[in-house]
Amino acid sequence: MANLVALYVSQVRKNVLLYTFGAPRVGLREAAYDQVVEAYLGEENIYRMSHNFDPIPMIPVAPYIHALPNIKDRNNLFVASPVNSISMDNHDTANYIKSVSGKTWSDIRSDKLNEGYLNKQYFSSWRSSDSWLKQYFGRALNAQMATLQRILQGLIDTVGIGLTEVATILDLLSIAIRKGIEVYQISKNYVLKFISDCAAMFGMAVEVSKQLLLKLFRKMMTEMAIAAKLAIATASKVVKSKEFHLILAAATAGSIGYLMI
């Protein structure tokens, strides 16, 4: 709602500011949604903050995208989650308030850079040793997915080639199912190993096939849907809270601002 209303109002009034915390994806890549929003609002007027293990910004999966989809975008404020697993707690308003409390936008941008470095460390560890997988067997599924998410993000940040569309494990599987694994070209070997390791972590055959991709995608999507529904249920209770109205007042001061939590 925040994205769509801001886009609508920007066509009749200038100086629209869009602030979102933990917002889901709104538009399609094929429709150049990100470019349309940036053209109407201006990149400098969009502030999109999300915790890296908040399930809501991960859905819907590719080909849906965010405004400011690239981690390198200045106001894509992608920061470490308070809970180190995919959890509804990471979508909680109080935790977003804690993440920004006493900080400037520049401080938050610095936090984002530190998180990127940590993801590369996870990827480096995964690439150099097969023993990492054994460390995570028996852990809760959301913790396993969080580990895989860090490795994938590190893979994207380090290798990059052929993975520009990917933001989450589910996106990787979705694109691979739709277009075929060959779409990843040079980074194909890393992608195949990553998917095989994901399958092994969930007790599936490690030989990559369309059947495996579908099975793995459905299993992960089921777990993600549960986490997302719990997060939405939690968020729906905050609209009457004092904190919500304080943020709303700050966002709307001086110009039209739209907020999604």
UniProtKB/TrEMBL annotation:
Gene3D superfamilies: alpha/beta hydrolase. Pfam families: Lipase_3. Residues 1-61 form the Fungal lipase-type domain. It comes from the Bacteria. This is Fungal lipase-type domain-containing protein. It comes from Thalassolituus marinus. The lineage of its organism: Bacteria, Pseudomonadati, Pseudomonadota, Gammaproteobacteria, Oceanospirillales.
